[in-house]
Specification:
alpha+beta, 14 strands, globular
């Protein structure tokens, strides 16, 4: 993480804390943060189909999604949503629990289902988690599947840097970087000797990653764009 990125991220968070201390409510905070270009203007659910709920309540396009919320999808449903400077695609039969401060995500737990994510650059390490894995990320595009009843998760680091720890196995860790889908992994929590295994690229596409980045007014790294089209 370069010094300029770290400084800018710290200043964003300081400004948001000052806004909160000034007594701005969440709607006003969102509006002011957008005006200051701290976050993209359009937050919350951006696209969806089928049964989507936020904190157990039916949600439509435009519904707010913030740190502390839980997003669920039903059969044959999906939800694309933006929180802070990050964008997500939660596929059918999914449950995602979001944690964080102010307007920014610190961690997201995929209880079950399939989740494609793109994250803005940040000085702070953030986490994706499932029952089988904890994944530390910075400025990353990644795809996670969680199968709690089967004892494993799948993760593809589409671009960026990540560190993976297999659930319950402090000795099973891996730190790696990817330019273009080079590092898909199966992560097991069933006690097998090799808890992190190489895997194929499955169930996500370059076009979906481009769409998510566009929701937060970004493009993937040029090294990724140079290879687009294989998946």
């Amino acid at each position: 993480m370069d010094k300029n990125t770290a400084t800018a991220d710290l200043e964003r968070r300081r400004l948001l804390r000052a806004m909160l201390a000034a007594g701005l409510g969440v709607p006003a905070l969102l509006q002011e943060a957008s005006a200051q270009q701290l976050i993209p203007a359009a937050q919350g659910v951006r696209r969806m189909d089928g049964e989507v709920r936020v904190n157990g309540r039916p949600a439509g396009v435009g519904a707010a999604v913030r740190p502390g919320d839980t997003v669920t999808t039903g059969r044959d449903a999906y939800a694309m949503f933006v929180v802070g400077r990050d964008a997500y695609l939660l596929r059918e039969n999914g449950r995602a629990e979001i944690a964080g401060k102010e307007l920014f995500v610190d961690s997201l737990r995929l209880v079950t289902g399939k989740l494609l994510s793109v994250f803005g650059r940040s000085a702070q390490r953030r986490e994706l988690a499932s029952g089988a894995a904890t994944i530390g990320i910075r400025g990353t595009g990644g795809y996670l599947e969680a199968y709690p009843t089967r004892g494993y998760s799948y993760f593809c680091l589409c671009y960026g840097t990540a560190d993976i720890a297999a659930g319950g196995r402090g000795d099973a860790r891996e730190l790696f970087s990817s330019v273009y889908h080079e590092a898909p992994r199966y992560i097991w929590s069933d006690g097998r000797a090799q808890a992190i295994e190489r895997a194929p690229v499955i169930n996500h596409s370059d076009s979906e990653l481009l769409m998510l980045e566009a929701l937060v007014d970004r493009k993937p790294p040029q090294t990724f764009l140079d290879n687009v089209g294989s998946y």
